[in-house]
Design goal:
This protein is of the alpha/beta class and about 200 residues long. The chain is about 35% helix and about 25% strand. The two termini are about 20 Å apart.
Length: about 200
């Protein structure tokens, strides 16, 4: 893995991962470790690294997406960061779409914010995948609106079968920037965080 990936992994380890307590996940399951990825996505340096990582994942797809989107709010920061990074680096422009958890009850009554034309190739994203149910909610909404899902990418795969389930259900490439196996503290069951040296380089 390259230096940018290792820096992102170390920052997520430091900022987002806690180990050794009992946590209730969105699925209702109990877990001895927890990723609070909003802490990384609300940090400028981390968010820049996340945007670059997701653009790299987009470039690996057999069909480059014209859109990126997912379920609020696991996808919100990723989507915004990626479309901005694509614009500022001169990469092929990507539009963003966000699926609401419930249809908006006022205004235009949107279920999808910035709904794009039918047939738009989209890369669906999420911050953490456990069973894949939240990501599937977004995928189903995009399919119902006529999008073409060309790939699904998570920031973190908890390696609980979710990515494999999504691949079977939507018959498209599914990947993750980081996986449970990338964090040795989980297997060791300890919560002492690694020391991270402050970089003197630009956030980008």
């Amino acid at each position: 893995m390259n230096a940018a990936w290792e820096e992102l992994r170390s920052l997520v380890d430091d900022k987002c991962l806690t180990v050794g307590q009992s946590y209730t996940l969105t699925t209702g399951r109990q877990s001895e470790f927890y990723f609070d990825c909003k802490r990384a996505m609300l940090d400028g340096k981390c968010l820049g690294l996340i945007a670059d990582a997701f653009l790299d994942e987009a470039a690996r797809l057999s069909r480059y997406p014209k859109a990126i989107g997912g379920l609020t709010m696991g996808a919100d920061f990723i989507v915004a960061a990626v479309i901005q990074r694509a614009f500022e680096t001169g990469k092929p422009l990507i539009s963003g779409s966000i699926v609401r958890k419930a249809q908006k009850k006022h205004g235009a009554g949107n279920k999808i914010e910035n709904e794009l034309p039918k047939g738009t190739p989209i890369m669906v994203v999420d911050d953490v995948v456990t069973t894949g149910s939240s990501t599937a909610t977004a995928c189903d909404a995009f399919i119902a609106a006529g999008y073409d899902i060309v790939g699904i990418v998570a920031l973190v795969d908890r390696e609980s079968g979710g990515c494999e389930s999504l691949a079977r259900k939507y018959d498209c490439p599914v990947s993750a920037v980081l996986r449970k196996r990338d964090f040795p503290r989980i297997e060791q069951g300890r919560d002492d965080k690694p020391e991270i040296e402050e970089s003197t380089e630009s956030d980008h």
